[in-house]
Specification:
29% of the residues lie in helices and 39% in strands. It is an alpha+beta fold. It has one domain.
Length: 190
C-alpha cells in the first residue's frame, strides 16, 4: 500500500503579468493610441483648412484696404478697358508729398494645383512693386465704374471692386463700393 503524503504547497506570490493580461493590455493600449492618432490627424487637417480660409479672407481684405485707401485720395482714376479693369491708375496731389501716381496691375501666376490665379501688385511713383495679393481668381476679380440703377449709360463717381481669392479649396469673396473724397469737391476725373 502506498502512503499518500499530503504536503501543503506554499502559494508563491505572483511576480509580473500573465500572457493573457499582457495581450488584453496591448489591445487596450493600441485602441487608445489609434483614437489619439485619428484625433491628431483630424486636428491637423482642420487647422490647415482654417489656415487656407484665413489666408483667402486676408487677401480679399488687403485688396479692398489698399485700393480703398488710394481711391479715396484719388483726383484722377483711370481704368483699363479690359475684363478686369486693371491696370488701375490713380493720381493725386498731396500738399506735402507732391504728385503721386499709384498703379495696380495684375499678372498671371499658377498655384500648386496648376490653376491660373492673379497676382495684384502696387507701384507707387514708378518705384518698385509691392505685392498686395497672390491668390485672386481671374473670373471673380475686377473693378469698374458704377452705373446708375435703371440707367446703365449714366456713370457714377463710385468705383466698384469685386475680389475673389482662392487658397487650395477655400474661396472667399467681397464686393466694395469706393467713393473718392475729392468727388465731393467735384475734383475727380475718370
Amino acid at each position: 500500500m502506498k502512503i499518500l503524503i499530503c504536503r501543503k504547497q506554499k502559494k508563491r506570490s505572483q511576480l509580473g503579468f500573465t500572457l493573457v493580461e499582457m495581450m488584453i493590455g496591448l489591445v487596450i493600449g493600441t485602441m487608445i493610441l489609434a483614437g489619439i492618432g485619428a484625433l491628431m490627424q483630424h486636428l491637423l487637417i482642420t487647422t490647415a483648412q482654417q489656415s487656407d480660409k484665413t489666408l483667402a479672407q486676408v487677401e480679399v481684405h488687403y485688396v479692398s484696404f489698399w485700393i480703398g485707401e488710394d481711391v479715396a485720395q484719388a483726383q484722377s482714376i483711370s481704368l483699363a478697358k479690359s475684363s478686369t479693369g486693371f491696370p488701375l491708375t490713380l493720381n493725386w496731389t498731396d500738399p506735402e508729398a507732391g504728385d503721386t501716381t499709384i498703379i495696380y496691375s495684375v499678372g498671371n501666376m499658377t498655384d500648386k494645383l496648376g490653376r491660373t490665379l492673379l497676382k495684384l501688385t502696387r507701384t507707387k511713383d514708378g518705384a518698385g512693386n509691392s505685392t498686395v495679393a497672390e491668390h485672386l481668381v481671374p473670373e471673380g476679380t475686377r473693378c469698374y465704374q458704377k452705373t446708375e440703377t435703371g440707367n446703365e449709360s449714366v456713370l457714377t463717381n463710385v468705383l466698384v471692386l469685386e475680389v475673389t481669392a482662392r487658397v487650395d479649396q477655400k474661396v472667399e469673396s467681397g464686393s466694395y463700393e469706393i467713393s473718392p473724397r475729392a468727388y465731393s469737391a467735384g475734383n475727380v476725373t475718370w
